[in-house]
């Protein structure tokens, strides 16, 4: 017992850090694949498809808006563990864990062990850090590598060790190949170096030489990216709007997704800064506050000014590298509370409320936060027939990621292909138009509807995604139906006039599901009868949601005259006769 007690006392900080890392791992692991990839994640999954070569991944990524390192790590993860969501989100998940000890080390090196532990603990339930640790995008690597870069910068400033300089160059180079916000971080680090020299009240030739070496190596490392960087700079029109001057307050609130938490953290930041400059406060605390403030202020100011004079680049998620210094300054505010008992109680209370907010108020684990492409792709693959699928606004590659992961033979094409086929007169009689968001689908598909007279017979929406089933009336025929009350029928039925169904042709039945709840099913059947009333073929189905449309391919001889009958369910149905081209 005595030996164990001595071990715990000697390693108290390490044990607390281990507990913090384990808790953070549990929070980030829980629900890691609960939600589908959303639009941006599907870009990453497409770029990092394990079927692509190393060169293809690099070229696709550089052609987008990011450097290629994260996409290559994701590509390797897919190759090792399979083309699935778990493998795709694994690099971000690991980054979200590794940043915890890095935050502790920053706090320890800048302030104290206690401040480092407080900051690491505050990172466990932080909504922003958790969310991006579960997303297949580069942002978790972004905040990990930025934190490492600042950690080794601080160490390189305080020590002439070549190891610290080498680690600074390595982490900053990796940062360069993950996100172009590296240049914002370098601006902040330049300010920190100048402040450090002024703080020390001496011109340090050794430090200046080491800084020039680091800059030179980083410039050499950036050469392969120069062409891509120049291309991005030359873009005149980009989707990011320039935020107003109060943007930082909105961003700060988003880091916590809570007015209460953002207010509490703002007070702690203020306390951390003010107490660091009290008369009699040590130089260590003042320098720590200067480093963290420079990191935050320059991190906001440079991209905001850049957006005024050139292309806007400032979004809340692009400032995610500022969350660690925010937590560190807040931890300085906590350590300023006296007595120590009150300090610990305040820390426990803040952590407790953060947990309650994440788990209960936000209902983080069960709340759907992303567009659910996975479920929509599954519904499309589960339909009665392998119909052509056309998508709007880059969504073909997004759906194809899931079709491939679900091992389906379906492949989506852009709606421009559909427009060309309709113009040439060789479009399919029945097809889907899918999108990532229902409102976009309605707006963009209307142009195709108007130009070619397409008939939307079913619309299925699910959590930000939508797919509409269209009939091409140029090659399909809608049957006229009447309601029959024939005494020979046990229930009311709809019946068509006589028709001759082409051998191999199909019947599309669309049941009006507008009055049916999302979870309710409707039992229906389609029956083909000859002129004497004898049944030729029957198909029954339980319809629900997307399955409000049913495809029926009766096996009958060419030239047989028949009628369609189907029971009255919840509304007037539609029946379309399709040629023998529907698979």
What does this protein structure show overall?
The protein folds into three domains: about 1-225 and about 250-360, no CATH class; about 375-470, 3-Layer(aba) Sandwich (D-Maltodextrin-Binding Protein, domain 2); about 475-580, Hypothetical Protein Tm1070, Chain: A. By secondary structure, the chain is an alpha+beta fold. Helices cover about 55% and strands about 15% of the residues. The protein has helices spanning about 1-10, 10-30, 40-45, 55-65, 70-80, 85-110, 115-125, 125-135, 140-160, 160-175, 180-200, 205-220, 225-235, 245-255, 260-275, 285-310, 325-335, 340-360, 375-380, 395-405, 415-425, 440-450; strands at about 390, 410-415, 430-435, 455-460, 465-470, 475-480, 480-485, 495, 500, 505-510, 520-530, 535-545, 550, 560-565, 575-580. The strands form three sheets. Strands 7, 8, 9, 11, 12 and 14 form a six-stranded antiparallel beta sheet that branches. Strands 2-1-3-5-4 form a five-stranded mixed beta sheet, with helices on both faces. A four-stranded antiparallel beta sheet has the order 6-15-10-13, with no helix packed on it. A hairpin with a 2-residue loop joins β4 (about 455-460) and β5 (about 465-470). The longest helix is centred in the middle third of the chain and has 27 residues, at about 285-310. It contains 22 helices and 15 strands.
Strand content: 5-15%
Low-confidence stretches: none
Mean pLDDT: 87
- Secondary structural class: alpha+beta
Total number of beta strands: 15
Q: Give me the Rg, rounded.
A: 31 Å
Q: How many helix segments?
A: 22
Largest sheet: 6 strands, antiparallel
Shape: elongated
Gap between N and C termini, in Å? Answer: 74 Å
**Domain count:** 3
What level of helicity do the residues show?
40-55%
């Amino acid at each position: 017992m005595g030996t164990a007690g001595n071990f715990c006392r000697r390693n108290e900080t390490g044990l607390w850090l281990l507990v913090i890392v384990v808790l953070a791992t549990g929070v980030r692991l829980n629900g890691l694949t609960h939600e589908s990839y959303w639009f941006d994640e599907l870009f990453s999954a497409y770029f990092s498809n394990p079927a692509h070569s190393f060169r293809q991944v690099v070229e696709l990524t550089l052609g987008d808006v990011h450097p290629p390192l994260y996409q290559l790590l994701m590509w390797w993860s897919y190759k090792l563990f399979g083309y699935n969501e778990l493998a795709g989100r694994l690099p971000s998940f690991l980054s979200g864990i590794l940043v915890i000890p890095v935050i502790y080390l920053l706090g320890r090196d800048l302030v104290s062990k206690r401040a480092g532990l407080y900051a690491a603990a505050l990172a466990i339930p932080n909504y922003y850090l958790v969310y991006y640790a579960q997303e297949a995008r580069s942002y978790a690597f972004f905040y990990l590598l930025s934190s490492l870069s600042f950690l080794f910068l601080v160490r390189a400033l305080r020590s002439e060790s070549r190891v610290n300089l080498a680690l600074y160059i390595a982490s900053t180079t990796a940062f360069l190949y993950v996100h172009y916000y590296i240049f914002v971080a370098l601006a902040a680090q330049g300010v920190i170096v100048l402040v450090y020299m002024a703080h020390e009240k001496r011109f340090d030739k050794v430090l200046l030489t080491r800084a020039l070496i680091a800059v030179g190596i980083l410039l050499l490392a950036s050469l392969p990216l120069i062409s891509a960087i120049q291309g991005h700079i030359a873009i005149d029109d980009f989707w990011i709007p320039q935020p107003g001057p109060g943007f930082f307050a909105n961003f700060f609130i988003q880091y916590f997704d809570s007015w209460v938490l953002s207010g509490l953290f703002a007070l702690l930041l203020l306390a951390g800064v003010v107490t660091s400059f009290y008369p009699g406060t040590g130089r260590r605390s003042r320098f720590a506050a200067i480093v963290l403030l420079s990191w935050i202020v320059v991190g906001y100011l440079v991209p905001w000014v850049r957006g005024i004079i050139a292309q806007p680049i400032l979004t809340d998620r692009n400032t995610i590298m500022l969350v660690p210094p925010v937590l560190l300054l807040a931890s300085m505010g906590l350590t300023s509370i006296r007595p120590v008992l009150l300090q610990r109680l305040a820390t426990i209370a803040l952590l407790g409320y953060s947990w309650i907010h994440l788990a209960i108020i936000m209902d983080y684990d069960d709340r759907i936060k992303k567009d659910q492409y996975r479920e929509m792709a599954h519904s499309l693959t589960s339909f009665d027939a392998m119909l052509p699928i056309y998508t709007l606004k880059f969504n073909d590659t997004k759906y194809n990621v899931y079709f491939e992961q679900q091992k389906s033979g379906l492949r989506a094409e852009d709606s421009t292909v559909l427009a060309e086929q309709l113009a040439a007169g060789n479009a399919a009689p029945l097809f889907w138009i899918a999108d990532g968001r229902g409102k976009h689908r309605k707006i963009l598909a209307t142009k195709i509807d108007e130009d070619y007279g397409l008939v939307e017979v079913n619309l299925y929406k699910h959590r930000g995604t939508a797919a509409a089933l269209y009939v091409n009336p140029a090659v399909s025929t809608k049957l006229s139906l009447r309601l029959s009350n024939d005494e020979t029928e046990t229930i009311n039925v709809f019946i068509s006039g006589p028709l001759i169904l082409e051998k191999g042709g199909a019947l599309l039945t669309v049941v009006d599901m507008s009055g049916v709840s999302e979870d309710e099913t409707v039992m229906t059947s389609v029956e083909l009868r000859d002129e004497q009333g004898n049944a030729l073929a029957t198909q029954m189905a339980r319809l629900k949601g997307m399955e409000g449309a049913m495809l029926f391919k009766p096996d009958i001889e060419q030239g047989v005259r028949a009628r369609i009958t189907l029971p009255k369910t919840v509304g007037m149905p539609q029946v379309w006769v399709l040629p023998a081209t529907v698979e």
